[in-house]
Structure formats: C-alpha cells, structure tokens
Amino acid sequence: MGDPKRVGLVGSFLEKFNIIAKNREFRLGVGIYKGKEILACSAGIGCPSTAIAVEELINAGAKTIIRIGTCGGAWRSDISAGSLIIPTSSIRDEGASLEYIPQGFPAVADIDVTNALMASADKLKFKKFVGINRTHDAFYGSQKTITKWGLYLAEKRWQKSDTPILSSEMECSILFVIASLRNVKAGAILAVNSNPEPLKERVANKKLLVITESNEKVTRKTVEKMIEVALEAMTVL
C-alpha cells in the first residue's frame, strides 16, 4: 500500500496489532488475522520506493506479498467506482523495472495469489474485475501517455472487444517483476475510487476531457472491501 495511514486501517481488521517501525514513507505494523500473522507495510507512491519496500520485505523473510491500493478511475466504462480490480499482469510503462531486467520480461502476478484473491472476493460477494493493469511513473503525466493505448486498440478488428487494459496505477509491475526474480509469491488488488476513464471514448472523441471525481465515502468503503479480500486471501496462502 502507498499511504502510511492505511497501515492503521489494515490494523483495525487485526488482533494484537502494533506498529513496529517507521521511516520516511515506510510504516510497518504486525497483527493476527484468523490465526495468521500479517505484516502491513506502506511503500509510498511509485515503483522506486515500492522496490525498496519489496526488497527489504523479502530480505526479512516475506514469502507472499499482496499489494493493496487505489487506481483512480478504470479504463472501461462498465467498471464503476466501488469496484475491485485484481490484476493478472501489468504493463511495464515505467522505468524502475528496467533497472532489473529488459522490457521483454513480463510483469505477471502469481497464479495462486490471484486465484486466492478471486475466491475471496466471490466469497464476500464483492464486485470484481480480473485482467491486465498498466503501471506508470508520472502522477501528473501527459494525457498522451494514456491515449496511446487507446490508439493501439482503435483498430477496426478490435472494436467489438472490451478494452483489455482495466486500470492504471504506479506500483504493480515492479512488485510482480521483483517477486518473479526472487521466487516469492505476489499479487495485487485495486480499489476503483473514481468514475471511469474509458480508453475507447477518449480515442473516438478527441475533444473529450475526462475529469475523474472521487467520493470520500465510496473510497473508504471500497478500500475496506479491498483490505478484507486481501486478508481473506492470505489465510489460504
């Protein structure tokens, strides 16, 4: 997770929760969920700080890591605020993972973690979408970096298909790459907390200005659902 404050929110779901370390954007807390020890760690925004957290967690003995975080608005019109997205993989539209391995290496979530997240969401009856995510570097980047993906997907032969890229955020790909290289299990679940930013509409209407709006109550509720799904998944991993 990115926000240090969210560590405390995770802690509200746990027994015997204690904050054990704080340094810059990193905050760590430990507690028990249904008999299993859980470590919650914040990692700040973006792949560089996430890479530091992931490397240190693995060095400390972590074998399974689940990223929980928000992704703003989804890239498909049918994925509304309040939904959950479980990435199966992530486009490496960022630079940090290139410091590890060339671009052709895929950023793929562990299948066991992904299946556990899907099963937990179904068990809790939370609306979920499963598919490809995109990870990027710039919170205030040019809109052209988004619409380029819509241009690729604008070919006539793909018009009847749903957009395969569900979401965009700033951390998943580096987690998946490092986990693969270091032989640990990793997955992610994302809370959709804004109205959709549909790719096809952006390309079809060049004058379209997508303004994302998030609701604090919706965000809080969706984040809580996301945390619950992740914790339930950890009990079977």
Description:
- The protein is α/β, with parallel strands linked by helices and 237 residues long.
- The chain has one domain: Nucleoside phosphorylase domain (Rossmann fold, 3-Layer(aba) Sandwich), CATH 3.40.50.1580.
- Helices cover 32% and strands 27% of the residues.
- The protein has helices spanning 5-11, 47-59, 111-123, 144-152, 172-181, 199-204, 216-234; strands at residues 15-23, 26-33, 36-41, 64-70, 84-93, 107-108, 128-136, 165-169, 185-191.
- Strands 4, 5, 6, 7, 8 and 9 form a six-stranded mixed beta sheet that branches. The chain has a three-stranded antiparallel beta sheet with strand order 1-2-3.
- The longest helix is centred in the C-terminal third of the chain and has 19 residues, at 216-234.
Please give the radius of gyration in angstroms.
17 Å
Largest sheet: 6 strands, mixed
Average of per-residue pLDDT values: 93
> Regarding CATH, which class?
Alpha Beta
What is the CATH third-level topology name? Answer: Rossmann fold
CATH superfamily: Nucleoside phosphorylase domain
Number of domains: 1
Task: Tell me which oligomeric state these chains represent.
Answer: single chain
CATH architecture: 3-Layer(aba) Sandwich
Q: Name the poorly predicted regions.
A: none
What's the N-to-C terminus distance? 19 Å
How helix-rich are the residues, as a percent range? 25-40%
- Kindly state the number of beta strands: 9
